[in-house]
Amino acid sequence: MVELEVAEIIGTIAFALSGFYVAVKEKLDLLGIFIASFLTALGGGLVRDMLCDRAPYTFTHLLPSILVIAVILLSTLLKLHLKGEIEKKFYFIISDTLGLVSFSISGALIALQAEFNFFGVVLMALVTAVGGGVVRDILLNRVPLLLISEFYGTVSLLVGAILFGFAQFDISGYLPVMVVFAFGVALRLLAYYKQWHLPKIG
Amino acid sequence: MVELEVAEIIGTIAFALSGFYVAVKEKLDLLGIFIASFLTALGGGLVRDMLCDRAPYTFTHLLPSILVIAVILLSTLLKLHLKGEIEKKFYFIISDTLGLVSFSISGALIALQAEFNFFGVVLMALVTAVGGGVVRDILLNRVPLLLISEFYGTVSLLVGAILFGFAQFDISGYLPVMVVFAFGVALRLLAYYKQWHLPKIG
Amino acid sequence: MVELEVAEIIGTIAFALSGFYVAVKEKLDLLGIFIASFLTALGGGLVRDMLCDRAPYTFTHLLPSILVIAVILLSTLLKLHLKGEIEKKFYFIISDTLGLVSFSISGALIALQAEFNFFGVVLMALVTAVGGGVVRDILLNRVPLLLISEFYGTVSLLVGAILFGFAQFDISGYLPVMVVFAFGVALRLLAYYKQWHLPKIG
Questions:
Q1: Are C66 and C56 in contact (CB under 8 A)?
Q2: Where is the Glycine transporter domain (chains A, B, C) (predicted)?
Q3: Which of C59, C61, C65 to probe by mutation at the B interface, max B CB count within 10 Å?
Q4: Chains with 3 or more CB pairs closer than 8 angstroms to A?
């Protein structure tokens, strides 16, 4: 599915960018910046592949790592980090959303292939999409945003849940995946601009 | 071994409950509460299965995840978190102990099957039993209690060591495992009420 | 290659020692000290083996764990932690460097065997050499030094990159590996005493 691949590329770039920003803000050196960008963009997939007992995709295909390197080089050359926060700019929100949803879909599809149950599929969507950012936050001693705010991870869980539901009725192929993709993107953007939050207890 | 399975169920519930409490105390939202409960109860087994190169048990069997969900729903409905600390109540200590020992045993038995050596068996017992809580504490930026206090992890190591010893003399089956189980539970309760601690250096 | 094996043994000892120091400084108890030493020395290899889908070397061979136990016992008996910082002493820097370079080489060689690409080989060198220390720092809630300072991780990446380059031209065997080993050790010592740092951005 070309659309998914394009979305994954855009997502990888957005995730690498957000890793770059965090790293510069935390005053990491060049190696630290590389590790933070790389983990944010590709760490989730690495964890997913360990859980699924697959050869790590990132270590057998070149494109993802090349995207990360390109993002770091370009951002450094263009001194992006001096140009103010990108995290609230429209094009960043869109790219980040494309990444969130396409990564969730690829995680869920791989989990379905591995014959995981409902929770496996849903959590593999989550791990693939947000696992990298969480690992980065752990490294940098930050409480992962995922755990305390917003509707972000929930989009990922819902994408996984719907794909699991589809699989129970043998619904698969291009169209259903694209519908889930569009739904996920719309939901995340809506949640972002309406500032939806999950409830807390207590 | 039905007894072990029952102990694992009780343990899963106790671990999920303790994850729930920590999450509410840290003001996580619903997704965060789910992740914290899930990791505390089942994260250790996931790490164990990655190290042992097995399909993750939690993602191929439904019961563990359903227990976690049920714990969260019931605790929320009953507003358990408003009813004071459970962590020192007798029934919680017992349930938690059953979990600690049964998880340690299952970790050690799986490591023996994978033909790990002494250290592999002992550490796999530890990882299965306390790995989930440690991952949760890492996520939440807390220094895992395991590292600074009490006799908790040591019980797990001892259970692993004894089972490894048994295996060297081809002692296996129902009775020996139950003896180890009873020993572990007794040791942990004794350690708790006598407030045993490991020595520090320096 | 006997030289590599000797270097790995020396490295394991140095890494275990540095874990011991950190643990004592953080006032961990005996179990915590064991876990910190063990992870620092052998945690990187465990992560490597999970990523490469291999049975964990540490859990199928006894020597590494025995070295760790011996280091803890001897350090405790000799009260090493009362004799001032070792971390800047010449023999510690040398041993630590031997560990860094030999672990990087073994990580890269295993990644080449698993047919990983350039980034896989380079990162597997890094993970094997410094992954354990990073996991320990995460557990103890410290920002891993790797991310903020010095040339340490870079040596590891360069060792991986050179070995990957060699493999493209079918250069392998005793001599090339020894040349990389000597290069890595020299580079790290030079970087240490000249206080080289990677640049920061911003």
A1: no
A2: 6-74, 94-167
A3: C59
A4: B, C
